[in-house]
Write a structure and sequence with these properties.
Rossmann fold, seven-stranded mixed beta sheet
């Protein structure tokens, strides 16, 4: 059956195009296999280093304590895990999980190079079908990964299941700028500058064009908040960062 013959209910977004649900994960995997080696350099270039501030803000909202068990979902090359592992200490644990083996390998290598070897575990896992027990983690973070998940509601449901009562989930993701002028500048940057940077630095213009498109297709701040509430999270709120280019969503399991 061709993509044109697939019923609309069996299609999902892959950037601005529609693909069968069963194909999105493999297509996203191809993108991240392609960009894994240059991912960290591109993050610094794309955001002028501001992504590091966004991630530190997210970790600060965790209010981690020694002994906490944290899931860093879609943890990529380990930026959040590197910040959280020292905070949970030897009595705690950070599980860096990612569906993409290339990203996970880069994350493992980076954290080992930083000397973070005793309290970090690596798991290749699908966010929609987490291989962990119920009520297992005190905190869950996912940074710039939810928009790439095929069925976001299933991922949020899985996060709720493995989070302990009293636990907190934090979703850091690109969102919708709140200032019209900023939105116009952001569009020009995303669709004119970013793909060129991808071609010159990562040698992959198409992947960075997809990443720009995936940001536009991601739910806005209020929609994502309602999606979290629909899966049972309580006390949900969000914080706009850099004028809403990025938003940090927070929710609890009571």
């Amino acid at each position: 059956m061709s993509e044109q013959q697939v019923p609309d209910g069996d299609l999902t977004d892959f950037g601005f195009t529609k693909v069968p649900l069963a194909q999105k994960a493999s297509r996203v995997a191809e993108v991240f296999h392609s960009v894994a080696a240059s991912y960290d350099v591109m993050n610094d270039l794309m955001s002028l280093g501001v992504h590091r501030i966004w991630k530190r803000i997210a970790v600060s909202h965790c209010s981690l304590r020694p002994g906490d068990r944290v899931l860093d979902l879609a943890g990529g090359t380990g930026d959040l895990a590197a910040l959280m592992a020292p905070q949970v200490g030897d009595a705690g644990q950070v599980v860096l999980a990612d569906i993409n083996a290339s990203m996970l390998q880069h994350g493992r290598s980076r954290l080992i190079d930083k000397g973070l070897v005793h309290n970090v575990r690596y798991v290749q896992a699908d966010a929609e079908a987490l291989p962990f027990p119920d009520n297992h983690f005190s905190h869950i973070t996912i940074a710039f990964g939810l928009r790439n998940v095929t069925q976001k509601e299933r991922a949020l449901q899985a996060m709720y299941r493995v989070l302990k009562p009293g636990g907190r989930v934090l979703v850091l993701e690109f969102s919708k700028p709140v200032l019209p002028a900023l939105s116009k500048i952001y569009d020009v940057y995303s669709f004119s500058v970013l793909p060129v940077m991808g071609r010159l630095v990562a040698k992959d213009e198409a992947s960075y064009r997809y990443l720009a498109e995936s940001i536009r297709m991601h739910p806005d701040q209020d929609t994502l908040l309602r999606m979290m509430e629909a899966q049972g999270f309580e006390g949900c709120r969000y914080f706009n960062l850099t004028g809403g280019i990025v938003a940090l969503h927070e929710g609890f399991k009571y």
